[in-house]
Amino acid sequence: MSPLRLLVFLGSTRDGRLGENVAKSVVNSLKQRNHDVELIDPLTLGSNGHVSQPLHFYKDQSQAPEWMIKTNAKIQAANGLIIVTPEYNCMLPPGLTSMMDQFPPASYRYKPCGIVCYSMGPFGGLRAAAVSPLPE
């Protein structure tokens, strides 16, 4: 099987987040299988995980910030997506949904997507997985 180009979206922006360890484990596991994997971390994007103007709302997308254009190109080029998300108050974290909402739904279409959930609670992130809206 030829290597896949995969993006791993890290869902947490909180101080002391555990998601970095979970995401690194996912990335390392995929790289051991010779896949091309890149971590998308909302704290390293220009938005700090908060939508101000989604890419698809720009009249001229070439006027959007460079980080947004580059990240969107990575999403479009990916063979698949993996979302690493904590469970915050029985829901998805706002940093994850805000980050992913910055890019057009068409960029996500027809891409297989996996969800890796974690939680300090007794359900291990199950409730976050149950409400996770996959990109269109």
Question: What is the CATH first-level class name?
Answer: Alpha Beta
Major beta sheet, strand line-up = 2-1-3-4
Distance between the termini: 27 Å
Order of helices and strands: EHEHEHHEH
Structural class: alpha/beta
User: Helix tally?
Assistant: 5
Give the % helix.
Answer: 25-40%
How would you name the CATH homologous superfamily? Flavodoxin domain
Q: What best-fitting shape do the alpha-carbon axes yield?
A: globular
Radius of gyration: 15 Å
**What is the number of domains?**
1
Average pLDDT level: 84
Beta fraction: 15-25%
CATH topology descriptor: Rossmann fold
Oligomeric nature of the chains = single chain
Instruction: Please give the largest β-sheet.
Output: 4 strands, parallel
Low-confidence stretches: none
What does this structure look like?
The chain is of the alpha/beta class. Helices cover 32% and strands 18% of the residues. The longest helix has 14 residues. It is globular and about 45 Å long. The two termini are 27 Å apart.
Could you outline the blueprint of secondary structure elements for this entry?
Elements: E1 5-10, H1 19-32, E2 36-40, H2 66-77, E3 80-86, H3 94-100, H4 105-108, E4 113-118, H5 126-131
Parallel strand pairs: 1-2, 1-3, 3-4
Can you tag this structure with a few keywords?
single chain; Rossmann fold; four-stranded parallel beta sheet; 4 strands; globular
Write a compact overview of the structure shown.
This protein is α/β, with parallel strands linked by helices. The chain contains five helices and four strands.
